[in-house]
């Protein structure tokens, strides 16, 4: 698991771009974000309107870590680090990652607010007199009584906060993995889903390895941070950690109770939906698409100009049916981070970074067309040239347009 997570970056198509851009984003997040926050707190609150700019580097980097986790969940040990492209999607995932962390820390913040609010109401605005209370405690416990009570209260509070933060550190990667698998923030906030991931042995092992990798990586990166090398190393260490989180959570998110969140299951559903043939035609032909039937072969002589007709609204019967299993499935759609909805596949990283320029149509379409031309079949399953699309978005099954009906 650790070896696969460490070597994932070497298997990416754009390792130099990931290291350079990721290191730059990390450096900017360490510099720009604190400057913006200081300006809002100490210069002018109106600088809050520049939040998209001040927080953009950190949010894009966090969105990339979500993408790394998603890739590790879907592909397991064979996953490679994704390219750092499509920044709009990364920004949205980064915002959702921050909201996820804020929601998990909200109970702790709420507890502090209630505690200090109650103490303020009791001692300042309420009937409790701090001087009288301190005198009563001193008389009961001795001169050091008030200090001892304050120390015990501080220790109890610190222990509670430490336990909560430790639980947060353990559960937050599990919640991030659940969110990354489906793209829905509510899955990352589902207690049952997060618990199903957190109680598994592979996740516990992956979390321990991730914590160790972060500790060692930051210890090595800290002395070299002024040389910028440490900044890139810190970014790479976080890639390894999130790759471990995804691999550890993959088993729980692809089987068992957590399967219903729509993680890799959603990916499979999208691929199945994409591979399901769409009935083409009008009228009764659309209603009869549920049952595949045997394809009636169209011979070279019988299919051309011999009275073969098309099904238009159920009024004319051609006698030719299609087997959906013989159709080529369209390209598999990827998963976006916006609710787990399918999205169009991104161009290759080489195209997005400007190192390659696509020429003509996609390779798969050209290969299919060449294969059709070699075996004598057209793209819609016939034996002649491609009939082309029909006005209703499907294909015409009659004789080709270049065959005149009166041809002798």
From TrEMBL:
Pfam families: DUF4013 (PF13197). Residues 271-286, 293-306 have a biased composition (Low complexity). Signal peptide: none annotated. Residues 271-408 are annotated as: Disordered. InterPro entries: DUF4013. Residues 366-377 have a biased composition (Basic and acidic residues). The chain crosses the membrane at residues 35-60, 98-122, 147-172. Residues 318-335 have a biased composition (Polar residues). This is DUF4013 domain-containing protein.
């Amino acid at each position: 698991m650790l070896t696969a997570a460490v070597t994932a970056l070497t298997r990416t198509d754009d390792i130099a771009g990931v290291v350079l851009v990721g290191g730059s984003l990390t450096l900017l997040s360490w510099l720009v974000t604190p400057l913006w926050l200081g300006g809002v707190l100490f210069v002018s609150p109106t600088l809050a309107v520049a939040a998209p700019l001040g927080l953009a580097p950190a949010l894009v980097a966090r969105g990339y870590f979500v993408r790394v986790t998603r890739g590790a969940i879907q592909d397991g040990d064979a996953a490679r680090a994704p390219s750092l492209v499509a920044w709009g999607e990364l920004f949205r995932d980064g915002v959702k990652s921050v909201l996820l962390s804020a929601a998990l820390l909200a109970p702790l913040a709420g507890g502090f607010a209630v505690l200090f609010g109650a103490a303020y109401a009791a001692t300042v605005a309420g009937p409790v007199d701090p001087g009288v209370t301190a005198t009563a405690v001193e008389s009961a416990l001795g001169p050091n009584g008030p200090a001892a009570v304050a120390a015990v209260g501080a220790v109890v509070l610190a222990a509670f906060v430490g336990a909560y933060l430790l639980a947060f550190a353990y559960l937050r990667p599990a919640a991030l993995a659940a969110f990354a698998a489906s793209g829905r923030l509510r899955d990352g906030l589902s207690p049952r889903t997060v618990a199903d991931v957190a109680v598994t042995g592979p996740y516990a092992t992956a979390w321990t390895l991730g914590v160790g990798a972060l500790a060692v990586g930051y210890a090595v990166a800290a002395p070299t941070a002024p040389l910028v090398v440490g900044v890139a190393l810190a970014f790479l260490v976080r890639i390894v950690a999130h790759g471990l989180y995804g691999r550890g959570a993959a088993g729980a998110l692809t089987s068992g109770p957590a399967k219903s969140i729509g993680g890799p299951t959603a990916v499979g559903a999208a691929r199945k939906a994409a591979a399901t043939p769409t009935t083409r035609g009008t009228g009764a032909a659309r209603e009869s698409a549920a049952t595949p039937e045997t394809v009636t072969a169209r011979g070279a002589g019988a299919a051309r100009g011999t009275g073969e007709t098309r099904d238009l609204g159920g009024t004319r019967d051609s006698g030719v049916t299609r087997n959906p299993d013989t159709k080529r499935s369209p390209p598999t759609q990827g998963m976006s981070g916006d609710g787990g909805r399918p999205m169009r596949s991104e161009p290759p990283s080489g195209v997005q970074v400007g190192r390659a320029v696509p020429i003509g149509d996609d390779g798969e379409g050209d290969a299919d067309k060449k294969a059709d031309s070699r075996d004598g079949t057209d793209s819609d399953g016939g034996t002649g040239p491609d009939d082309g699309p029909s006005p209703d978005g499907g294909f015409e099954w009659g004789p080709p347009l270049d065959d005149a009906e009166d041809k002798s």
